[in-house]
Write a structure and sequence with these properties.
Two copies of one chain form a homodimer.
Chain A (H helix, E strand, L loop, with lengths): L9 H11 L2 E2 H11 L8 H13 L3 E7 L5 E7 L1 H26 L8
Antiparallel strand pairs in A: 1-3, 2-3
Helix pairs in contact in A: 1-4
Chain A binds a DNA duplex through helix 2, helix 3 and strand 3.
DNA sequence: AAATTATACATAGAACCACGAGGTATGTCA
DNA sequence: TGACATACCTCGTGGTTCTATGTATAATTT
């Protein structure tokens, strides 16, 4: 009966992070954890394939930039195409979560929760 | 870029349907579609394996009952154990959807949506 | 100075989950 | 009698995320 918190809607979250500013992978993981109050602890094994996929589909563009520390980081930038995709995904999330909530509201056992 | 509406959180939805009354499989599909304004059109290939899993884990119990038409239907009943599981899942959904919304709120590009 | 931790990127394999496609069968209506 | 809605079920596939692992550098601790 153990509950495993799967991410899902990963693309939506990743794109929404990049809507504010360009970020590099590691930063996105830390930021996502912070903004979600540590509900989401995305793994590298999840993030990087997603980023590469978004890059292939033209939603993001990557460029390298040296950090003050001397390390080279790979930043990702949201393209116009990616911004449009983000809006789509956000709308889909509204629909999806709204539908779940509607079903739950029809369930008497959960009101006093 | 096509958006595929995956169900996910299927167990939660199935359990919440059974919290109100006993139902049989086909009925659950119809009810879920109705309550979600047709956002969720669960497939038999999704529902029946889930129901069998819930039965194995003791969250639901099945019994057969003849319909007025003469057909025998398989009804599912939520057990006490299943009700507890439902509460857990509902809380997990609150946490999850709350976290997604928190991340989206931090995203400037989506406010005028 | 050495060891550990945090930073930073990446991939391959395993596991899970929902779906599509298909199968079986009965009741109803034209 | 043919079509359609009802009603149940399973198998194989594909997509998605995780675990595990690998590489490498900077910062911190011992």
């Amino acid at each position: 009966m153990a509950r495993k918190q799967t991410m899902d809607h990963t693309q939506l979250l990743v794109l929404s992070l990049l809507a504010g500013e360009d970020m590099y992978g590691y930063q996105m993981i830390v930021e996502l954890a912070r903004r979600s109050d540590h509900t989401f602890e995305m793994k590298e094994g999840t993030l990087y394939p997603v980023l590469h996929g978004l890059e292939r589909s033209g939603a993001v563009e990557a460029y390298e930039q040296e950090a003050p520390t001397g390390r080279v980081r790979k930043y990702y930038h949201l393209t116009r195409r990616g911004a449009a995709f983000l809006k789509e995904e956000a709308r889909a999330w509204q629909t999806y979560s709204g539908a779940v909530n509607a079903v739950l509201r029809a369930c008497p056992a959960l009101d006093p929760a």
